[in-house]
Amino acid sequence: MNIEALSLVLILTLSATFFAILAVEARSLVQSTYWYVAHSCCLILTYVTYGVTTGNSYLYIWAGLCVVNTWILPFLQGGLRYTAKRIHQEERLTHAASLIFAIVAIVSVGVILWRSSLSLAVAGSPLDNLDRTVSINLVCSLLLFVYGTIVLLTHRHLFKLALGLLIMTSGAHLTLVQMAPSFFSMVEIEILTKVMGTVFAMLYAARLLFERFQTADAARLVESDRVSVVL
Amino acid sequence: MTYETSLLLPLFPFIPLLAALFVAFAESGELGRRIAFLLGTVPPLGLAGVILWRLGAFHGGPPVVLVAWGGFLYADVLSALVLCGTFFLVTVVGIYSFPYMEHDIEQGTVTEGIVRWYYFLLLVFCVFMTWTVTISHLFFMFLVVEVATIAVSLLVATYRTKYALIASFKYNLLVVMAMLFAVMGAVFIFAKMTATNPGLTRIHLLEMGRLVALLPAPLALIVVACFVGAFGTKGGLAPFHSWLPDAHAEAPAPISALLSGLVITIGPFGFARTVALFSPRYESVVTLVSALACLSIVVGILLAIVQDDLKRLLAYSSVSQIGYVFGGIGLGTYLGMYGGLFHAVTHLLAKSLLFFCSGAIIYRVGIRKISDLGGLSRKMPLTAFCFFVASLSIGGLPLLAGFMSKYTIVLAMARARLWWAMVLMAAAGLLTLAALVWAAYRVFWGEESARVAALSHTRREMPLAMSIPMIAIAASVVLLGVFPQSIFPVLDSGVRSLLALRAP
Fold first, then answer.
1. Cross-chain residue pair B195–A145, CB shorter than 8 Å
2. Which of B149, B150, B195 sits opposite A125 (nearest CB)?
3. Cis ω before B463 (30° cut-off from 0)
4. Paired strand residues for A119
5. Is A212 on the interface with B (CB under 8 A)?
């Protein structure tokens, strides 16, 4: 891949991470959905860029599936936006995920720079010579995966947890594309690991809990019981 | 290793699938539903036995692997053993559930529709559990594990209470999150392999041993970390166990038995297929797994001791016991793997029996708080006997199933010169015995509580459909303890088939 394509991929990966953070931090859940769609647009463009530069036509199919997954499924009954309109986010908003992510990102980049060097273009596979040169794009996609994990570990709102799972999946897929862009069974892997079934099941549970207990915040759900016991 | 084609293997999931469709859509009565359920689980149990026999599990010989659909499906002795366990336990859980869920309908905790859905999900779980242990394509395995997880999470939410819904959500979230770590590990292996071998199209589990041997050390350790996190969470290993106590406590008792006996076994199964392949090459992997196993054993039993909720106590005990299984398998030696598999079998029997006992108590008394129980032995003698037998077995008392399996694992630790792990495991075994026997004493022989005193003497302890599975499992626990050599040929073949997967 040439340096222009790699730079474009870097910009798109960073944008995907930025939009993922906005999706998690947004006050309104409907807004979160739109930021997630923006995040997915960056991924689609990344796959197309890789498709053009490596000649792997399977990546176009992957991008097409991504369009279905992120532009159509969230707007269907039971999807992200459907759920976002039916449950609202309580005032409590934690920025812990983004703060922890910032620290993790700074520390990991620092460690990499201390042990080896970061480079946009890496000769051969990004997994070769990890002790000497590490691909910036690879680090960014891994950080996206880590961000999804942090969201899952720090957030208590069920909708945000579903978002965290989707972000983790994006990170895993992006990492695969960065590491083996010319591989031809990508579509198969994308379909098999998309976790859409789980996300729909989780959103259904979130809606059910909100309908019955007027909150989709796991911490508040537990607290409400403690309060009633005290009273 | 010899590969043979099997026509039987693809059939497995379709039998419970047809039964599931019947249960969901046919306008049948309660009896029709029960018959359909048993037709969906008993014949596959027989077929699993046939497969075990075809694999030479009962008469030794070189390891054989059955394959179908061009290698997409496979079955070695380990897969066949899990299949037997799956269909046995689901059949038993189903039979136990017939009166249990009927009682719940009478109590108004569930509706007729939810019970129909319950049996449907149990059969769907069987379908995807079968594929989980027979599909050789690693990424496809991820998909079927995800669907099986959804089915189990919906079963956990059967009562639709707030805590049941939260527990179901938590289980779904954490397990799928963990499986994404497994995907990440597979992605690393895949990317590395496609760079050197562009013809590679997918990762076959049976080829993992060869692929592992080609990975450079730093990458191999990252992959191990991903797999340990993934299968550790699925198996409820501390510190990844947070879903386990909630799910066990909030699910109906038969589902808790299924969770503890079978669902968490997928963790060690995945572990044996992946992480155990790294153990002979990297000593740090053995140390890491042994440390995590010991942490799980100690933390699990310490948390179990302080519980006042019977099901939660048993759940934490599962966190502890699964540590033994992981520790044994993670060693990667013949003895360790043998002990690990053996303990998975004995734990499946004893823990499901304990959860059935807790279900019987809930059925009769309606509560599960230990401090509100007491003196139940006179009103529920069969339950008291079964609970006591299972507790002693899990505690590792000689002449019961759990003794020999634990002893094998402790011996394997000593052979591997992991003295600290050996001492911790032996000490935690005593604590387990004390914790479970103390719980049994408080529930069955302690001071009779008002709630228990109010129970009628004349009423039958529980319906036959609930007591027969309990008696059958209690008998197996005793028989396996007295004749531990009876299971040796099967476990020996299982371990040899696992060892044969390694690269020379």
1. no
2. B195
3. no
4. A135
5. yes
Distance, in Å, from the CA atom of B33 to the CA atom of B24, rounded to the nearest integer, reads 9
Residue B375's pLDDT is: 84
Rounded Cα–Cα distance for residues A205 and B154 (Å)? 10
Report d(CA A193, CA B146) in Å as an integer.
Answer: 9
Report the C-alpha gap between A23 and A30 in whole angstroms. Answer: 9
Q: How many C-beta atoms lie closer than 10 Å to residue B410's C-beta?
A: 22
Considering only CA atoms, which of A171, A59, A45, A182 is closest in space to residue A124?
Answer: A182
DSSP B136: -
| Residue B162 to residue A206, Cβ atoms within 8 A | no
> What's the CA gap between B200 and B222, in Å, rounded?
21
Cβ neighbours of B222 in A, within 8 Å:
none
How many other β-carbons are positioned within 10 Å of the β-carbon of residue A119? 15
pLDDT of res. A229: 40
Q: Do A165 and B177 lie within an 8 Å CB cutoff?
A: yes
* Phi/psi of residue B501, nearest 5 degrees: -75, -15
Nearest to A144 by CA among A179, A103, A175: A175
Phi and psi torsions of B89, nearest 5°:
-70, -40
Can you tell me the mean pLDDT for B379-401?
93
User: Is some CB atom of chain B closer than 8 A to the CB atom of A184?
Assistant: yes
Would you say A217 and A161 are in contact if contact means Cβ atoms under 8 Å apart?
Answer: no
Residue A230, pLDDT score: 39
Q: Is B225 on the interface with A (CB under 8 A)?
A: no
The closest CB to that of B139, out of A124, A161, A189, belongs to: A189
Inter-axis angle of helices B217-235 and B283-305, nearest 10: 20
A135 touches B: beta carbon within 8 Å:
no
pLDDT tens per residue, range B36-90: 999 999 999 999 999 988 887 777 777 888 888 888 899 989 999 999 999 999 9
Amino acid at A37: V
Name which of B141, B160, B165 to mutate to probe chain A: the one with the most chain A Cβ atoms within 10 A of its Cβ. Answer: B165
ipTM: 0.86
* B137: phi then psi, degrees, rounded to nearest 5: -80, 120
| Cα of B441 to nearest chain A Cα, Å | 30
Angle (CA) B382-B388-B393 rounded to 5° is 130
Residue B5's DSSP bridge partners are: B67
Which stretches within B108-161 are classed as H helix?
Answer: 112-134, 138-156
**Residue B363: band (very low, low, confident or very high) from pLDDT cuts 50, 70, 90:** very high
Binary contact (B219, A221; C-beta < 8 A)? no
A205–B172 CB contact, under 8 Å: yes
Please tell me if residue A183 touches chain B, with a CB cutoff of 8 Å.
yes
Of B243, B229, B238, the residue nearest B299 (C-alpha): B238
Return d(Cα B331, Cα B329) in angstroms, integer. 5
Rg of chain B in Å (alpha carbons)? 22
DSSP B208-259: HHHHHHHS-HHHHHHHHHHHHHHHHHHHT-TTS-THHHHHHHHS-HHHHHHH
Look up tokens 């027979």; give the residue.
Answer: B134
What is chain B's length?
504
Across the interface, whether the CB atoms of B139 and A188 are under 8 A apart is answered yes
Report residue B3: phi and psi, to 5°: -105, 130
CB contact under 8 A, B165 and A205: yes
Report CA dihedral (B140, B141, B147, B151) to the nearest 10 degrees.
160
Distance (Å) of CA B467 to CA A92, A95, A197, B386, B391: 50, 53, 37, 10, 18
C-beta of residue B39 within 8 angstroms of C-beta of residue B47: no
Residues sharing a CB contact under 8 Å with residue B165, sequence separation 6 or more, in sequence order = A205, A208, A209, B157
